[in-house]
Design a protein that fits this description.
225 residues; alpha+beta; four-stranded mixed β-sheet
Length: 225
């Protein structure tokens, strides 16, 4: 009786594995039977620079002007990108008020932003020289907590970059030790949401020895709107 049961169990196990092997072989055979898709050759003369999301050659857009370009130009005052000179002295005082405001990003298209100093986006440019002390005074005039995070500052973030409740003000100092162009932004979580809503700008730290003389200096801060 026991031998019969063991024999039946062994037959069942062998049959189960045989069924699995058959199913796997059939699936492999079906895949092999499908013809491989050959890469379609690019049309003659098509530019190599291609946007693969749309499969349209980027070169085809060269020189194209939007139909409403004149309307947009008339509706918007150009942002003054002129870089102001570095303030004199060892101490540079910067004051910003965070505000909720509505900006018109296109004719009739308005967007609710959280802005530094009521400028919309980007925030005001901070221009200092290496070695100067920056005294930052931040006031939250918005409806939710905000903060500021200077990538140019070597300072304890849990002290200087802390969240400010609505109506709260805070002042901190840091030494501009590293020359370069840096971003500042709101550091309140979720950080990307605050940046996307307009809370970002640039701080420029010129080297102590200065830079070569030029006719004009401009600052452009890119964004999606």
């Amino acid at each position: 009786m026991v031998a019969t049961m063991l024999l039946g169990l062994a037959v069942g196990v062998v049959g189960f594995f045989a069924l699995l092997m058959w199913a796997d072989a059939r699936e492999s055979g079906d895949a092999a039977a499908q013809p491989a898709e050959a890469a379609a050759p690019a049309p003659a003369g098509q530019d190599d620079a291609t946007d693969y999301n749309t499969a349209l050659p980027l070169a085809s857009f060269a020189g194209v002007v939007p139909e409403n370009a004149a309307e947009l130009a008339a509706a918007h005052k150009p942002y003054d990108a002129t870089l102001l000179p570095v303030p004199a002295g060892d101490l540079v005082k910067v004051q910003m008020t965070l505000k909720d405001m509505v900006v018109e990003v296109a004719p009739g298209v308005r967007y609710n932003t959280w802005a530094f100093d009521g400028h919309g986006a980007p925030g005001p440019i901070v221009h200092v020289r290496e070695g100067q002390t920056v005294e930052m005074t931040l006031k939250n005039g918005g409806a939710i907590p905000h903060s500021i995070d200077f990538h140019a500052a070597r300072i304890a973030p849990n002290v200087a970059f802390r969240d400010l409740a609505p109506g709260e003000s805070f002042t901190f100092r840091f030494t501009a030790s590293d020359p370069g162009v840096f971003m500042y932004h709101c550091g309140t979580k979720p950080v990307l949401a605050h940046i996307a809503n307009g809370m970002y700008g640039a701080i420029i730290v010129e080297p102590k020895a200065g830079l070569p003389k030029v006719d004009n200096e401009y600052v452009l801060v890119g964004s999606e709107w």
